[in-house]
Amino acid sequence: MANCSSCPSGSNCAHSASTGGDGVCDDPFAVQDGIIAETLKHIKHKIFVMSGKGGVGKSSVTVNAAAALASKGYKVGILDVDMHGPSVPNLLRLDASVELDEKTGKMLPARRDENLSVISMDSLLQDRDQAILWRGPKKSSAIRQFLADVDWGELDYLFIDSPPGTGDEHMTVLKSIPDAKCVVVTTPQEISLADVRKAINFLQYADASILGLVENMSGLVCPNCGEEISIFKKGGGINLAKKYGLDFLGAIPLDPAAAVAADRGEPIVNLPESVASKVAFLELADKIASACDNDLANLAD
């Protein structure tokens, strides 16, 4: 059935009388809603990674958590909805482009490997240095197309990487994927926490499900002696989680090895060395998987 919630004619349409609409409608929005709903049936967990603040490492969290789960054999997709500054293809050294399935007419995500696939504006551009000059409605339309017109196949996890703020992209994701579980990323210092509090308020207002909070750039582990230095302070994330009654999913330290890996387009979780950030990201991925499974179990009860 189509969900009439996004249809501009929903308020005065006979088909919207029942909850969610009955789907008997040829309005393009309603038809697209139905296609999106059918796509989402084949995706077990949808993880929306967001933060009110830019520069906190949302994309790094997305890529490494997704890569960690893919390395365990799960089928994982990444939907990059940051139209103006997409980072995911660079963090994965993704040279493959999005292809078109001639039989279905749907886009096929660019594949990093057999378990990890990506859709990003960056993969659709001939010139990756080209700026995207779009206003809100255009971006919202693109996100809905990335859900309706892409053959994601059967996925265990779909990670949605988002831009900073609480704008059109975030509202479109939450409206299009009502069962998305949100992972909020912050850094320890107050300049970040102030904006993340707004993001949490936004998610509460939108009645979104918050899986938990991650503190990124949480201290620095010296690569020579192993001593931890609180270069950006520590603990702001866990204190914020306690204040709002959220689960704290983990703290990711600053790590020179992670910066080098990112520039090479290789997730730190895929490297053979057991460095501090790799261990933290692997633990984060396990916590996200466990929290998703617990959430499903609670719904089943």
Taking all residues together, what is the mean pLDDT? 90
Calculate the terminal CA-CA distance, rounded to whole Å.
25 Å
What's the total helix number?
9
Helix content class: 25-40%
* Number of E-state strands: 11
H/E element order: HEHEHEEEEHEHEHEEHEHH
Give Rg in angstroms. Answer: 19 Å
Strand percentage lies at: 15-25%
Poorly predicted runs are none
* Morphology: globular
- Structural class assignment: alpha/beta
User: Main beta sheet, described?
Assistant: 9 strands, mixed
Give a structural overview.
The chain has 301 residues and is of the alpha/beta class. Helices cover 37% and strands 20% of the residues. It has nine helices and eleven strands. It has helices at 28-40, 58-71, 88-91, 136-148, 168-176, 190-205, 236-244, 256-264, 276-300; strands at residues 43-50, 76-80, 99-100, 107-108, 110-113, 116-120, 155-161, 181-186, 209-221, 228-229, 248-254. Strands 1, 2, 5, 6, 7, 8, 9, 10 and 11 form a nine-stranded mixed beta sheet that branches. Strand 8, helix 6 and strand 9 form a beta-alpha-beta unit. Helix 1 (28-40) packs across helix 4 (136-148), helix 2 (58-71) crosses helix 9 and helix 6 packs parallel to helix 7. The longest helix has 25 residues, at 276-300. The radius of gyration is 19 Å and the shape is globular. The model has no long low-confidence stretch (mean pLDDT 90).
Quick structural gist:
This protein has 301 residues and is of the alpha/beta class. It has nine helices and eleven strands.
Reconstruct the topology from this structure.
Layout: H1 28-40, E1 43-50, H2 58-71, E2 76-80, H3 88-91, E3 99-100, E4 107-108, E5 110-113, E6 116-120, H4 136-148, E7 155-161, H5 168-176, E8 181-186, H6 190-205, E9 209-221, E10 228-229, H7 236-244, E11 248-254, H8 256-264, H9 276-300
Parallel strand pairs: 1-7, 1-8, 2-6, 2-7, 8-9, 9-11
Antiparallel strand pairs: 3-4, 5-6, 9-10
